[in-house]
Specification:
Elements (H helix, E strand, L loop, with lengths): L1 H8 L4 E2 L7 E3 H9 L3 E5 L2 E3 L2 E2 L7 E3 L4 H6 L4 E5 L3 E4 L2 E3 L2 E2 L3 E3 L3 E4 L2 E2 L3 E2 L4 E2 L3 E2 L4 E2 L3 E2 L4 E2 L2 E2 L4 E2 L3 E2 L4 E2 L3 E2 L4 E2 L3 E2 L4 E2 L3 E2 L4 E2 L3 E2 L4 E2 L2 E2 L4 E2 L3 E2 L4 E2 L3 E2 L4 E2 L3 E2 L4 E7 L4 E2 L3 E2 L4 E6 L4 E2 L5 E2 L12 E3 L13 H13 L3 H18 L3 H14 L5 H23 L6 H19 L11 H10 L1 H26 L3
Parallel strand pairs: 1-3, 2-4, 3-8, 4-9, 5-10, 7-11, 8-12, 9-13, 10-14, 11-15, 12-16, 13-17, 14-18, 16-20, 17-21, 18-22, 19-23, 20-24, 21-25, 22-26, 23-27, 24-28, 25-29, 26-30, 28-32, 29-33, 31-35, 32-36, 33-37, 34-38, 35-39, 36-39, 37-40, 38-41, 39-42, 40-43, 41-44, 42-45
Antiparallel strand pairs: 6-7
Helix pairs in contact: 4-5, 5-6, 6-7, 7-8, 7-10
Length: 476
């Protein structure tokens, strides 16, 4: 494709530098642009400012834009008919190519911009190629309109401004390095956007931006990122990305799938009032101090919405919210993650119990926890049963005054009473009592009311055990 673009240049008068000429005066380039000549420079050092306001160019009235309204009026834009190709070069000066319509190719590759670069409110009607460029001062592309554009491997040492830009075709920022502020607020990515393996040393801002398909895979956000109030009209990928500070996605609308597959969050993930069809957190890792905020969710309204995640990976980081917990329980069941659903329900009831203010409700919550783990844990039932056996055993020992017996009789008595308490709780026949029916009958007569109470508690625990097992084992 590059060869074809080079051939296009041949139909124009070409301004070129001979190999031995390393320094080019910026006025030479401006003069060629004023005459409509193509620019082809390789391995040169451009000295001076490239300011289009200083040359006589055709101007074109354009409809009102957000940028012009922001400035307080309407205006006209310069029209550049020259193809510009500068590669493997350094531009030692400021570039003022703002408020300009570029009808032909703009091609900068492996070029360093030592001064400020201003392409704001410009229209790139053909290819805008900025691959492997380095910006040592601020780079302004805000309010500009792009068709085909490429910023792969570029380095922005200062601030990069792309707010309110319109990217009408595929755009590529793969392997780009943003060392200063990256401002993409209200930017429109109308087709595929690639930020694969890009690095943001400061927090990038994509507030109220609109995306089609976008890929931030393997990217590093050193100070977090802000995608608040943005719209993702197609899949958004953050696979294996790393967020070293808070990631803001509050109020964002994900029309399809948003994927954080094996992403790393070392601080908070803010997704309050977020809407999505599917959220993939498979393999995502959260730091010990990280919190997941999914408060006031919009996605809970539809049963078809899914969150792909395992409970163990988020249970220590999730901020409590009743609606979210109930949604997650249903979500895990729909995904056939039944153990996750039970564990999520268990934590929901536990946290709800801690916040309960009514004494009666709190008592019943504690009873539900101790007796059956809120209906999802048989271990609580087993532990409670052991506790009841021990409680009545101790009670029977105190009533029998075992402390007055000699050592051998003391040990024997402890065994008899423990066996008796166990047989009573499980309502086993007296034939199972290891010390004979005579002893069993003696204790029954001696502790009749207490034995009936323990047996009643045992029946209740047995019923709870059966119900809990049914819930855990029979899943549909």
């Amino acid at each position: 494709m590059i060869i074809i673009e080079f051939l296009i240049f041949l139909q124009y008068n070409v301004v070129a530098l001979e190999e031995q000429s390393q320094i080019v005066d910026a006025r030479q380039i401006l003069g060629a642009i004023g005459r409509g000549e193509a620019i082809f420079l390789n391995n040169v050092y451009v000295q001076g400012n490239l300011d289009l306001s200083g040359i006589n160019l055709v101007k074109k009235e354009v409809p009102s834009t957000e940028f012009i309204e922001y400035l307080g009026g309407r205006g006209s834009m310069r029209v550049v008919n020259s193809s510009i190709l500068i590669e493997n070069s350094t531009i030692n000066g400021n570039i003022y190519f703002n408020n300009t319509i570029f009808d032909k190719n703009i091609y900068f590759e492996n070029t360093k911009f030592n001064g400020s670069t201003d392409f704001s409110n410009s229209y790139f009607n053909d290819l805008a190629f900025f691959r492997s460029t380095e910006y040592r001062q601020d780079a302004h592309f805000n309010f500009s309109h792009f068709n085909r554009t490429d910023f792969r491997y570029s380095v922005f040492n200062k601030n990069a401004f792309f707010e309110y830009a319109e990217l009408n075709d595929n755009v590529n920022f793969d392997w780009a390095n943003f060392k200063g502020n990256a401002n993409f607020n209200n930017t429109r990515f109308r087709k595929e956007a690639g930020f694969w393996n890009s690095t943001f040393l400061r927090r990038p801002y994509f507030i109220s931006s609109s995306f089609s398909f976008v890929d931030f895979g393997y990217s590093t956000f050193n100070k977090g990122a802000d995608f608040s109030l943005s719209s993702f009209n197609d899949e958004g990928r953050f696979w294996w990305s790393k967020f070293n500070d808070t990631a803001y996605f509050g109020g964002t609308d994900f029309k399809t799938l948003i994927g954080f597959y094996y992403a790393e969050f070392n601080r908070d993930l803010m997704m309050n009032k977020t809407n999505f069809q599917s959220l993939d957190l498979t393999g995502a890792q959260f730091g010990k101090e990280s919190k997941i905020y999914l408060l006031y969710p919009e996605f809970v309204r539809l049963d078809s919405n899914r969150i792909f995640v395992r409970w163990d990976s988020i249970k220590k980081n999730l901020i409590y919210d009743e609606i979210l917990y109930l949604y997650l329980i249903k979500n895990f069941r729909n995904l056939a993650y039944f153990d996750d659903a039970n564990n999520c329900y268990y934590q929901y009831r536990s946290e709800n119990q801690e916040r309960e203010q009514d004494p009666l409700n709190k008592f019943f919550d504690i009873l539900a926890f101790a007796s059956c783990g809120y209906g999802v844990s048989i271990f609580n039932t087993i532990i409670s049963s052991i506790g009841i056996i021990v409680f009545f055993w101790v009670y029977f020992c105190i009533r029998s005054r075992v402390d007055r017996l000699d050592w051998n009789d003391f040990i024997l008595k402890l065994k008899e009473l423990f066996s008796f308490s166990t047989i009573i709780l499980i309502s086993a026949p007296s034939d199972f009592y290891p010390f004979g029916k005579k002893k069993y009958t003696k204790y029954i007569n001696q502790y009749n009311k207490e034995a009936n109470l323990e047996r009643l508690i045992g029946w209740s625990l047995f019923i709870l055990l059966i119900n809990t097992l049914s819930r855990i084992m029979i899943r549909y």
